[in-house]
Amino acid sequence: MSEKGEHEGNRGPATTRRRALMLGATGAVAVVSIRPALAQTAASVAHCEIPVPDPGRAGSYIAADGSLVPPGTAGAFPPVGKPLKGEDVKVALSGGQLPGTTADQSRAYTNYIRRLQSGTSGFTCFASLQMPRG
Amino acid sequence: MPDPLYRMARAEALRIVHLDSFIAVFHRDSGLTHLLAAPAPEIMATLGEAGLSRAALAARLAAEFELADLDDAALAERLDELVACGLVAAA
Hints:
The structure holds 2 protein chains of 2 kinds.
Chain A: H1 2-9, H2 12-15, E1 19-21, E2 31-34, H3 36-39, E3 49-50, E4 61-62, E5 68-69, E6 84-85, H4 86-93, H5 103-114, H6 123-130
Antiparallel strand pairs in A: 3-6, 4-5
Chain B: E1 5-8, E2 14-18, E3 22-27, E4 32-37, H1 40-47, E5 52-53, H2 54-64, E6 65-67, H3 72-84, E7 88-90
Antiparallel strand pairs in B: 1-5, 1-7, 2-3, 3-4
């Protein structure tokens, strides 16, 4: 029966569907490192940062629903000057407000972060904030 | 500058756990744990311990995956990240 096995193995190229893969924009981050001394404390999340918006879309404004819109769009908010700290984002995601922002602004930025996808700057940080600890 | 050869860290030094959309890698040599999102795990797996130049890696990835954005600068950045955290060595 080994002949049959080999024959089936040869079907490869015709039946394989290649998986899609994005390399991501320059400035995106695909690796977050956790240092052992911090791994068990909430402090570790303070070490990652989320730029709003992604450096690949620098200058874009952030609409109330979190989508990126051209600079100056009415009702949208300007980019955040410095990347947001993981700790602040964690508070905002659980109903708090980002420091130095109005309630509407904070909601727009938080909506943007919720829409982050793999390959976008800040995604891995956002993902690690969702992980239960302890 | 010649294209360096990139190699994955020794497989026996790594403990890999697959999570939903990313993997957690414990690196025994450094004692650090790293969370990797795509395309980092795919890059590591493609490099293997034998190692590839960046150009060869790009060709291998393009053959293996449907690459929507094959950009040399982005690939260089992804490799730099992996080198910086010690999961890939460049020589």
